[in-house]
Specification:
Distance between the termini: 32 Å
Number of strands: 2
Order of helices and strands: HHHHHHHHHHHHHHHHHHHEEHH
Shape: globular
CATH superfamily: MFS general substrate transporter like domains
CATH architecture: Up-down Bundle
Structural class: mainly alpha
Number of helices: 21
CATH topology: Growth Hormone, Chain: A
């Protein structure tokens, strides 16, 4: 690794903090398929099951600002330890949730878990940005973020083989019939299915507790900003609100996260509803999408050495939008492959928007980071909106009649439009 990207004395800290990116990637992508799982296990609607994502990303939205204030008052290490403690607590809460068979307790567990993830992301992202020269900050963050999908892939495999693959094969119609004819048998199936869901999260809680111990015993330098700033929160907030790249970056990040979660959550429903694939096989295409995402992340990180981040961001948004149009209008496997290809275009987006928005903010980046993590709340709002569309009826567009599932993907398509605007705006500003 070149010294201009990362000073050698910070390499051990960089490696340790980078492991956190895999930890929250695992949590994100073991959870996305649970929307479909809870729907079938508990016999609830698309909208009700999507509340898993509302609770999960709601933790980010609520806790990002408190996390930023916490690390301003204390240290990056304190933020990491607090985040890991909340993460572990949320995972372990799955055990009583499964025993009680209460969907509400599962939602509370997801919220507590991601309150911890909000601390981790609010801490780790600006910490990585601060570990070296400012001109290579976006490249450094993209490199660290490249390890996020490693955890995501592992989470997807666990969801596919240890959760979806082990749930009772009885479909929704069979379960609803049992609800009327043999409620005791249905309850037995549901209890067994919930146990299948619970134990991977409980094991994850143990792994996170081990990570908490490792970080507690490690020495992490508290990096300083490139520029001394007024420590007043009000003054910092005022400067942030007067920085257009930052304000539009928060907006773009909210739409990007909403886009990502919608595509990765509902690719299963797309494959099941439109192609008739079983949920476990459909999750295989979600895994393929993540492999594409991981590969593209490394390629795009390399391309950032030659292209302006805003220009590359806008170009990928345009291509991603074209692929989504393919998924909406093309029937059969080609439409599904278009959906998989969208992940190649998303790979660059989160860290690049993050890097552009925080560029040149110095000490204000700590509070600014909270706004960008708060923007992850887009994943709280948009999936339920898409689920509402999916629960409705199809629409007619001239010669085309679109199912509700296909029509619902116009919402992530609009997200690409917003991101293309932000990338273009950033590129044009850089050329002035």
């Amino acid at each position: 690794m070149e010294s201009r990207l990362l000073p050698k004395h910070l390499l051990p800290s960089f490696i340790l903090v980078t492991t956190l990116f895999s930890l929250w990637g695992f949590a994100n992508d073991i959870t996305n398929p649970m929307v479909a799982a809870f729907k079938n296990v508990l016999l609830i609607s698309h909208f009700e099951s999507s509340l898993v994502q509302a609770a999960f990303y709601g933790g980010y939205c609520v806790m990002a600002i408190p996390a930023a204030l916490f690390i301003r008052r204390f240290t990056y290490k304190s933020g990491i330890l607090t985040g890991l403690a909340l993460y572990a607590a949320g995972c372990l809460l799955f055990i009583p949730a499964g025993s009680a068979m209460e969907f509400g307790i599962f939602l509370a567990a997801y919220f507590i878990m991601t309150s911890g993830l909000a601390f981790l992301e609010t801490t780790a992202n600006p910490y990585i940005l601060s570990m070296g020269p400012e001109e290579t900050a976006a490249q450094r963050l993209n490199f660290a973020q490249a390890f996020n999908p490693v955890g995501s892939l592992l989470g997807m495999f666990v969801a596919k083989d240890f959760i979806l693959g082990r749930l009772d094969p009885a479909d929704e119609a069979t379960r609803r019939e049992l609800m009327q004819t043999n409620p005791a048998a249905l309850e037995k199936i549901q209890m067994a299915d919930l146990a299948v869901i619970v134990w991977p999260y409980a094991i994850l809680g143990g792994v996170v507790l081990l990570a908490l111990l490792v970080f507690a015993l490690s020495r992490l330098p508290d990096s300083t900003s490139h520029e001394a700033r007024n420590s007043s929160i009000a003054a910092s907030l005022g400067r942030l609100l007067r920085t257009p790249d930052y304000v539009w970056g928060v907006v773009a990040q909210a739409f990007y996260v909403g886009l990502q979660i919608m595509v990765w959550t509902f690719i299963i429903q797309y494959a099941v509803n439109e192609l008739g694939l079983p949920a476990k096989e459909a999750q295989g295409y979600n895994i393929l999408a993540m492999v594409v995402f991981v590969s593209s992340r490394f390629v795009c990180t390399y391309l950032l050495k030659f292209f302006n981040p805003g220009m590359l961001l806008a170009a990928l948004a345009v291509v991603g939008g074209a692929l989504l149009l393919g998924a909406i209008f093309i029937h059969g496997m080609l439409g599904l492959y278009c959906m998989v290809g969208v992940s190649a275009c998303m790979s660059l987006m989160f860290p690049t928007i993050y890097g552009i928005a925080l560029s040149g903010l110095g000490e204000d980046a700590k509070l600014g980071s909270a706004g960008l993590i708060c923007a992850i709340g887009g994943g709280c709002v948009m999936p339920p909106l898409q689920a509402l569309i999916m629960d409705g009826s199809g629409i007619a567009l001239g010669a085309f009649t679109l199912s509700a599932t296909r029509a619902s993907f116009f919402l992530p398509l609009f997200c690409f439009v917003v991101i293309a605007f932000y990338g273009t705006r950033s590129f044009l500003a850089a050329r002035r």
